[in-house]
Amino acid sequence: MAHRMDIVIEKAMLRILSHQQADGSFGYWCEVTPMSEAVMVIFLHLIGESQHPVIGPLCASIRKRQQETGAWTLYPDQTADLSLTTLAYFALLLSGEPKQAPRMRDAERIILHHGGLLQTSTFAKVLLAAAGQLPWSVIPVPPLSLISFDPSKPVNLFDVTAPARIHLPSILILSHRQYAVRLPSEMTLAHLVHPEHQPPNISIAYPNPSAMEQSKSFLLERMEPDGTWAGYLSATVLASLALRALGFQSTDKLIKKSIHGLMGLLVMNSPQTKVGSSVHQQFFTSTVWDTSLSMQALQTAGLSIFHPAMQHAASYLISKQQTRLSDWQYNTPGTVPGGWGFSSDNTLYPDVDDTLSALKALYPYKRQGWWRSEWERGANWLLAMQNDDGGWSPFDRNCNKPYLPLFAPDDLKDTVLDPSTPDITARVLDALGCTGILKSTRHRPLTVTYAKISNKAERAKAWLLSQQHPNGSWFGRWGITYIYGTTAAIQGLRWAGVSRGHTALQRAVSWLTEIQRGDGGFGESCQSDEQKTYVPLRTSTASQTAWALMGMCSATRELTPPIRKAVGYLLDTACEDGGWQEVYPTGSGVTGQVYLRYHSYPVVWPLMALCVVRRKFGSEL
């Protein structure tokens, strides 16, 4: 087994290295089903680019993902997703697909069977309203004048978490301006409004001019240099349409710049042509995240930090550190910026997970005296983001005010909040531990005393232990779902000083052992995220197996049969050319709406897991 493992590890390392780009990053595709292609096609039609050459290839990608039933799905074991099916159908219709086509008829039946247009997600409704297919009255939004842009006010935009904040002003502008593009009559979706669900006839009051002007200023101030908003497809689409609602023309340089920015999110599978036969639209890039994970995997595998590829990647990460104050400052006053964001084109919205991941990847260089000030700046920012309850949130500090869901549609009530989550809190503890911050050594950030750091860790540990479910698992917000959260919790608690024999860790390992599949692997459905209870997948996945394997290794001293079985699964399923095949999305974006297939995951996580096993049990393999 040891020899096989060495070969698999070597091939996986080479596979990762083959993905390094000219700027030093490790480039992988972050896939969000055909949702992103459908949104892009609809946007191009609404913004006046209906003849854009990318529409045809994007529509081809959409068609390829339609199920035999006529539905489109967010993940393979889902029967149908109403919102995705509606947007995919509309994108094809706008692009010339006749309603009479058999596959379009099949899609219509699926849409009506699931309740029609009025049962779609809020985001889908916003796009459909902007296309004149639904009245704006079907989208419950608060009066624009009620949402203050002054962070000192009791109800203000900065109480909303960053991903919602970058979308909300655009939705408010579009809604209050009643913006709707006039499309040809043959493009109507009126036949897909279910007879039992008719839109209400409600007028929306026009807001005061100052509120509209503040919304406009908010958008313009947050446009990224590449023309996107936070590097998000959805935010950029809505902001561009909002600018049109405010009077900007399609030919305006800002609109053109936003379109150009979205083109930068395209993935071409045909390197010989600019617009090949297989084109995909990313919802966002995951370049910073993929680069830090790739560096960690290669370091765990033993690649020297002085290797040119590693130094190049480290320089890339340093170049992406965010050193400007932005929205997060209002809930964390007095904190010097220094975090990292998820996407390569995001310069204003750092997040906790990407920051801790970058710090872990850069820590070996910091120990050599390289980029010490940058590293400590990032560590201080990370520590400052702890919530009052002891946990950490993904984006903002103490962004969990109970009144916020009152203003949000049902499907977005969770997205306006940014509560502490077990996986993020655990991963912070892991990062603080493995980078020496939890130890009284010279490697601590200089602006925070050891006593304060120790207090932060104890509070986080107590909060995390309180979040364990009765069956021994923890919920994971950003990976699918309980496997991800449980492994993160085990690793974080171990670094925080919790012993392997602690009841919480033993219960966690027992739970992992119970859900292990017969082939030795692990597999969990995206339905877990929606139902908030563990739902097994019928097949194992490489990334989830790797997570479980690392969790079991962290909580035991022995090379147990479950660990051997998980290692065997990864060795047996490794590809000849390196890495593992995985088509199932194991990342979560928006519960029930966005699930992510990271193309880096089937390589970096199994490589890390096998290297952990080799380092810990090498002589016993």
TrEMBL record:
Gene Ontology cellular component annotations, sorted alphabetically: lipid droplet
Segments forming domain Squalene cyclase N-terminal: 9-197, 210-267
Sequence ranges assigned to domain Squalene cyclase C-terminal in this UniProt record: 286-614
Keywords: Repeat
Gene3D superfamilies the UniProt entry points to: 1.50.10.20
Pathway assigned to this chain's UniProt record: Secondary metabolite biosynthesis; hopanoid biosynthesis
Pfam families tied to this protein: SQHop_cyclase_C (PF13243), SQHop_cyclase_N (PF13249)
Source taxon at top rank: Bacteria
Biological processes per GO annotation: triterpenoid biosynthetic process
InterPro entries attached to this UniProt entry: SQ_cyclase_C (IPR032696), SQ_cyclase_N (IPR032697), Squalene_cyclase (IPR018333), Terpenoid_cyclase/PrenylTrfase (IPR008930)
Example of a GO MF term: intramolecular transferase activity
Family: Belongs to the terpene cyclase/mutase family.
Matches recorded under PANTHER family: LANOSTEROL SYNTHASE, TERPENE CYCLASE/MUTASE FAMILY MEMBER
Protein name in the entry: Sporulenol synthase
Naturally occurring in which organism (per UniProt): Alicyclobacillus mengziensis
